[in-house]
Structure formats: C-alpha cells, structure tokens
C-alpha cells in the first residue's frame, strides 16, 4: 500500500473515529479509564527520564561553558529553555509514542484478530469510535499535564545535579531559570504536546484497527505504529515550530 | 425469518458464493455446513453484513438488509446476537460486564433491571460463581456459554453462531449445541449455525444448507441427510468410518 492509499484510508478511519459517541455516559467513563491507562500510568517513566535529562543538560552545559565571561546563570537558563521548548514536548512525545503507541496498536490489533471488533460491529456499534475516540480525547487532555510535570521535574533534576556536583550555585541556577522568560513558549509547547498526543493515539490505533492475520501481524503492526508515529511527531515538530515561532 | 435471494460474492477474481437462495426459519436451528474453504463463513459474514454482497438480496422478515442505509442496518443489528468461533469476549471486561455490555449500550434499563437480566442470562447458560472472572480465567466451554449469554442479553430475533463447538470436548460440544437449540425454541429466534461438526448436524440439524465450492449443493434436515443421493454431501457427511457404519445400519 503506498503513501497516498494510507492517507486516504487514514482519513476515512478518522471520519469513523470522530463521529458522535453511542452513549455519552459510557464514553466519559471510558475517557476516565483511558486517562488512567495512558496518562497516570506514564507518570513514572516521564518523571525518571525528565529528572535525568534535566540533570544531564545542566552538567553538559556547565562543563562546556569554558569562557569565564559567560555567567553561571546561563546553565539554568539553558536547562529551562531545553526542557520547555523541546525535551518535555518532543522527546517525551517520542518516548510515549513507544510506550503508549505499541500498547494501543497491540491492544486494538489483538481485538481485531480475536474478532472482538467484529463482535462490536455486529451489535451495531461503531467500533472505531467506541474504542479509539476515548483514547484520543484522554491523551489530548492528560499529555499537557505530563508536559508541565516533565518541565518541573527536569528543572528540579538540573538544579539538584548543579548543587550536588557543585558546578552551579543554586542562586545562579534559580536566577537563570527566571531570566528572559517568554510565556508564549509554554503555549507553543502545549500546542505541540496536544498535536503529538493525537498522533501517539490515532496512528497506532489505525495500524491496530486494520491488522489482518494473527499474533505475528499484530507485532508487525505495533512496530510500524511506533516507527511511523515517531516520524510523524518529528515532522509535525518542524511544521509547528515554523508556524508558531516564525 | 431470514431469506436469501441469489446471493453472490467475489473477492477479486475469486467467486466465493454463487447464487445462494434459501429461507432460514424462526424457531429452528438452521445449519450451514460444508468443507473448509467452501464459502460458509463468507456466507455467514455476508448475512450479518460484515461482507457486502456483489448482488442478490438478504431479507430479515421482509426488510431488505442489502438495500438499507447505515442507520437501517444498525437497527437490524440491534436485533442480532452472534457467537463467534473463539467467543470474542472482551478481554478487558469480566464475565458480568461482558453480558451487561449490550444492555449498557442499547437498553434504557435501570442498574437493578440490568443486573437482573445479566443474572438471568448467565443462569440460562448455567454459569455460576464466575461473574467477576475475566475471559482469560475461564475455560473454552465457559467462554462459549458466556458468549451465548451476551448474545441473548438483548432478546435477539436472530442468533448467529460461527463454529460454536470448535475446540471443545464432545461432552461440552453437545451441551453447547443443546443450549443453542433450547434457546432458539424458547425465544423463537432465527438461529443460523455455521459448522462442520457432524455430531451437531445429527443432533440439532432442523434445517441444513450444504455449500460446496461456493454453490448451494443441498438443502434439507438431519433425517433427510441419510437418504440423500447427493454425492458431494455423502462424501462430506459420511467421510468417517463411524458415520458410514451409522448410515449402513439405518
């Protein structure tokens, strides 16, 4: 299947997904379940990665600032900008594409090959809408919170690393993270996070939904889902950066 | 009642169903039999609308299913129950939630009424003390019974079963067959069972459609099958020595 066929099929798939849910009450309870499954269960990995990445960014910046004319607070400034602009949105997005994306593709793919999706269709339920829309809505809702958490934890990691290794005084780091702050960058990153959340859920769902065969094909679909959603995140990152920051 | 008129279905150049016409009656267990690859699963999936047919017509009590729009088909689907080969129970829901699922989606019942209906359906298929177990925690036979309970939860007019006793031991298979037949009569459902199990044919075959290479090769009931002159049907039904001997003795 070539790229254009995939685009066409994905568009038709989205039309199915984005239709009105069968029963509002059930839809909202599913959203809550998905928020727990996709968001709350990802807090651990987001915290660990953000903490260490914040620490590494701080140490690398500090050890590469050999010019004595450069002030120490630039380390805090660089850590904040890195976390705020790129790491907490894009890198966390890529990590979640691996964790959440493979989970979604294999879950929906398994439902397809074990005829659970057919069972929904027979009941007169729009299976794509019933299974996938709650995931998309939940991720778009919860991922911005994960982004904010990642920014805070990353900066905390940087502050701790600077303090524990003695490379940056705490007061300088704190001054740095307040220096030249542009609030719009948060808006920019939140928009990116929401778009990435859509990609992370919709693309793996698409691959899982149309899987044919057995366990082997589900595994292949899961791999394709992670690879292609990661590529789409990177592509969307370039496009959104050009649009939102020009 | 479900009536098929000249149903044809192809996949690319491969013609799978050729001019199939038959009437499946309500209150009877209607069986579709045939060798693997003969087209019986495609026929069943065409009847329930999982495959669009190329031409012909499928009537559900005089409603032409093939000509209905999405909304119309959806209404008829609410009158259908389906038991899949592997059960197709939802992995993330326990036994009780699986049976309750169609009620949650389509009924206006209160929680109390729903619980009562779920209890009735589970009791009807002899499932006890398993309400909170998940599909992975129960046996294949129990999964089939839960699937039947889920299929009858909304009082369907039409029940479809795809190989309902495949992978089951002979005793459990008979239990499942008898259960389907009892439910069919009790609720006057039009039941269509897709099978290649000869025990089912002999036990519950009140109306049998034999498909051979995509064509309707024979139509009758379990009593008529012993006297058939149809060579393909004879070769299929009486393939084993056991059934050959049974035929000789009758």
* Beta-strand percent range of chain B: 15-25%
Q: Rg of chain A, please?
A: 21 Å
Strand content of chain A: under 5%
Mean pLDDT of chain B: 88
Question: How helix-rich are the residues of chain A, as a percent range?
Answer: over 70%
Q: Which structural category do the helix and sheet elements of chain A fall into?
A: mainly alpha
Strand line-up across the major sheet of chain B:
6-7-8-3-9-10
Number of helices of chain B: 9
Give the number of DSSP strands of chain B.
10
Count of alpha and pi helical runs of chain A: 9
- Report the end-to-end length of chain A measured between terminal Cα atoms: 36 Å
Order of helices and strands of chain B: EEEHEEHEHHHEHEHEEHH
| Largest sheet properties of chain A | none
Give the N-terminus to C-terminus distance of chain B in angstroms. 32 Å
The SSE order of chain A reads HHHHHHHHH
| Uncertain spans of chain B | none
Largest interface: A-B, 15 and 23 residues
How would you characterize this protein structure?
The complex is a heterodimer of chains A (246) and B (250). Chain A has 9 helices and no strands. With 246 residues, chain A is mainly α. Chain A is elongated, with a radius of gyration of 21 Å. Chain B contains 9 helices and 10 strands. Chain B has helices at residues 40-47, 70-77, 95-106, 111-124, 140-152, 170-186, 198-204, 231-237, 241-249, and strands at residues 2-11, 14-24, 29-33, 55-60, 63-64, 80-83, 158-162, 190-195, 207-212, 215-220. A 6-stranded mixed sheet of chain B has the order 6-7-8-3-9-10, sandwiched between helices. In chain B, strands 2-1-4-5 form a 4-stranded antiparallel sheet, covered by helices on one side. In chain B, strand 4 and strand 5 form a beta hairpin. In chain B, helix 3 runs parallel beside helix 5 (140-152) and helix 5 packs parallel to helix 6. Chain A binds chain B through residues 22-23, 26, 110-111, 114-116, 118-119, 121-125, and chain B through 48, 50, 73-78, 80, 82, 84-86, 88-91, 101-102, 104-106, 160.
